[in-house]
Amino acid sequence: MSEASIDSSSADVANFTWTKFFKNMATFKGDLSTLTAPPFILSPVSLTEFSQYWSEHPDLLLATNNKEAQFEPKFEGVEYNQELNQFLFVVRWFISTLKSQYCSRNESMGSEKKPLNPFLGEVFVGKWEHEEPLGTTYCLSEQVSHHPPVTAYSIFNDTNKVSLQGYNQAKLNFSSAMLSVKQFGHALLKIGETNEYLITLPTLHIEGLIAAAPYVELEGKTYIQGTAGHFAVIEYTGKGWMSGKKNSFKCKIFESKQDHDNEGTKPLFVISGQWSGLSTIYTGDDEKKKKNPQTFYDADREAKDVLSVKPIEEQSELESRRAWKDVAEAIKEGDFNKIHQTKTVLEEKQRSLRKQEEEAGHKWETRWFDLVPVDEDHSSGFVKLSSLAQLSMEDVPSGTIAGSKNESKWLVDDKVAQHWRFNRQKWDDESEINI
Q1: Rg, Å, the chain Cα set
Q2: pLDDT digits over 100-116, tens only?
Q3: Rounded CA gap, 383 and 372, in Å?
Q4: What's the average model confidence in pLDDT over 395-421?
């Protein structure tokens, strides 16, 4: 079928071009992240902005360091020490981030769209201002690598002594009419001076490709490991052909990883439901009998707190919304030719800058983040927490078990693992980018 034979209506053209793109994905050899996406599936939002989704409920993030608050619901017969209480707040905050990270784009744009691929050095900054005495929560995001694409981020509130840092890289694979995305990287949440939590990132897949209505579903497991020993495993499932609900999960919380590995030890708590909707918590004793269920989190009832970002005219050319302004407007207008033209201008400008740097012998440097070898990572609790959870410290998919066959499959001989870490001093010394 030729394009000339297609009806001139926008719907028919869109369906035809989607079919072509679907076929391209199915036959493409290599890393799918390098495949050029056609204009009609692009989002007007750069991937650097996605870091804000970790804290669209900043009240839940800051509640993790409220030592005077008792986690609710509270079960009789359960001994709540300060560490367990905080761990429950951490788990609830994490579950609250999932709808923002993996579902909100589908709801706001009709179906899943591909975010704009950030250029090297692109940044995104903003803040949430709270009532006293909670101060201000800041969000920083930087594209620290382009090949492969890696986004690093930091979210912190100095008044409340809560800080999050992490990075994300995605590797895509197409099979069985689904796009599978393995995430590399992790998040580290620090509360106060000593408590820290390692959070791994789930694998996800894009369903609905054949119907030209893509959406995200999570799969596999996420692990949360705390400094005090508490350990959570979150397992994701989706809607099956005959049963189940979309965006389903089950989380089990244990006193330690050792308790998790001991088949005779019951979890302290079991949480189940939909991460995009309602979830319920039981004690480990009550879960099998579905006795005494209590609401854990209701994503539909929690309004998000929108990040405050300064006007585009006040932004640097490196900041996402100013850099992609013309492209974003063309996407919103549905002007495919304008999308292609404006996107090409921006990308060619960046290629020219990289070429000039190379010819001048200048090595490009990151702005606020450093790539740190794992054996030199003394500023975070990553090594200790990974050891407690028996998770790989190598550059492998997030949540890979240390010593597993899956780990060995991804290892590169003689390559020392390195991870991106936030350098607070660099931000404190920043003079060009402001919030």
Answers
A1: 22
A2: 999 865 555 666 788 99
A3: 12
A4: 93
Domains located in the chain, CATH noted? 39-298 (2.40.160.120)
pLDDT > 80? residue 15: no
Residue 349 · residue 341 · CB < 8 Å: no
Task: Summarize the confidence of residues 31-53 as an average pLDDT.
Answer: 78
Q: Do strands 203-207 and 231-237 pair parallel, antiparallel, or not at all (unpaired)?
A: unpaired
End-to-end CA distance of the chain: 52
Mean pLDDT of all residues belonging to the chain: 88
pLDDT of residue 398: 98
Q: If we measure between CA atoms, which residue out of 19, 29, 92, 105 comes closest to residue 62?
A: 92
Whether omega for the bond prior to residue 133 falls within 30 degrees of 0, making it cis, is: yes
Q: What is the pLDDT of residue 354?
A: 86
Tens of pLDDT, residue by residue over 369-384, are 999 999 999 989 999 9
**C-alpha distances in angstroms, 390 versus 139, 157, 198, 399, 403?**
30, 30, 12, 10, 9
Tallying the residues shown for the chain, one arrives at 435
CB within 8 A of 404, min separation 6: which ones? 392
Residue 60 tokens, joined: 């839940």
Chain centroid, CA 360 distance in Å: 36
pLDDT per position as a tens digit, 248-289: 999 999 999 999 999 989 999 999 999 999 999 999 988 887
Give this prediction's pTM: 0.90
